[in-house]
């Protein structure tokens, strides 16, 4: 399938280490994938769902202790500890290779090793990169087949000589949490993942390659790998402007990427097109603008809360050729269910643990981080530019997170440098996407805290550097918060489709068509410039959503000082200066 010696030698080496009984090279053909599906049904790894209602769909359950990313067991192994920075777990690569080498030794005895070639990004694009994942899990093969452009095309993209591919090794040997490791060796383009079967830990093209390894490559090669959705907003004249947005895991990327505008906007002819829902790779184009591609080929979305009202495009995307993980299995219909799908939980069903489930019991049927893996081509609003090797030009970059108070509905950075500051001080409540407490506010710069493959201070410097190169062609930078709550803890802003009203202001700002007011933290809309037509939110409530509480922000500034302190002399002086400006503004 490939004559690339770099690939062949490395596969030989890993086969010698893992000692599988059999090695199967994945060509991505329909026949081969169908065989693997049948195999995975025969071993109980997956259950085939109702072919009439959910054609080509399967359900899978992970182990109960293996349902989310494990940040405490995720490592960046650079030769110098300093290069991994204060926000990553680190170990000496030699020590880690030895330790994990012992765990991988013979781990695939009696098992099959699958060799998965995949291309991140459109095949043939200058922005795309190849990875190879070796795994003993058919679930991984079938998910990678949805999430990436997998098979022969990837070998063709790589060519016979290139050594520029990411070497991924995964085994699901033992599900003991204490033996679980998700390890990156960015200097060797290598990822080793052992003893997990959860998507974020084992679909190595996604967070491991497309963010952690790629961010490191981007720093060295002059581009950016970001935890961002990409959407195209079409106006009534048929012009499309592209927006990227970075929100932490389970904070609304997939939903915003597939937004359906409210009725009044649809009537005027506004549309949103999805280019990507999780990851953006961005380079400066020949025209000096920033261009983005989505390196993925599918959606690994959070199931709970997805329904025909909140996100019909996502739900429709899951109606065929989809793999569901850790959702409720409706036994009468052989279909799936999750909290927030509809008001009719199935009576005869298994919960995400595989136990008989009683919807009246008060126990959740689906895991809060249960997921669907759905092909991008299923999405009714997939962009015509999805496969464009050039990508799309970015007009605006949006940061955001879950904040019950502090952050207003939307504000704009004064310039790129201030925008980098705004991204760097992002904070958000933790979610079920990673193990650990949920709802605790933590700093998560650019939504990259768990995904930056090098020193985060140097990452900020890279952002500043990109801004210098982009000059006046740089996208405008904004911050949003859909999650402000009232005194009873209810979300004030309706969110979802109505986020269109905020996007409209953002695009109008970029076009020089909307005014703004200056606040201590940046530019905000004049309340009357946010269209509230058809909403039961009055101008006073909107003013509340836009308010900047100076006392809260003074506290915030203290927190930023503390956070910045971690980065020592890696913190760019521009950001320290921006913090001074913020404090001056707050004390005015
Ligand atoms: N209140 C509110 N919740 C939202 C909004 N957008 C998404 N969510 C919820 O946030 C959770 C995660 O959303 P998702 O789009 O899957 O996040 P992702 O992991 O960043 O892609 C789901 O429970 C959504 O229903 C919004 O605008 N407002
Ligand atoms: C795949 C994941 O992504 P997200 O929640 O950002 O969609 C994850 O966090 O495991
Ligand atoms: Mn998502």
UniProtKB/TrEMBL annotation:
Active site per database record: 251
GO MF entries: GTP binding; manganese ion binding; phosphoenolpyruvate carboxykinase (GTP) activity
Catalysed reaction, written as an equation: oxaloacetate + GTP = phosphoenolpyruvate + GDP + CO2
Pathway(s): Carbohydrate biosynthesis; gluconeogenesis
InterPro entries: PEP_carboxykin_GTP_CS, PEP_carboxykinase_C, PEP_carboxykinase_GTP, PEP_carboxykinase_GTP_C, PEP_carboxykinase_GTP_N, PEP_carboxykinase_N
Cofactor: Mn(2+)
EC number: 4.1.1.32
Quaternary structure and interacting proteins, as annotated: Monomer.
Protein name, per record: Phosphoenolpyruvate carboxykinase [GTP]
Protein species of origin: Bittarella massiliensis (ex Durand et al. 2017)
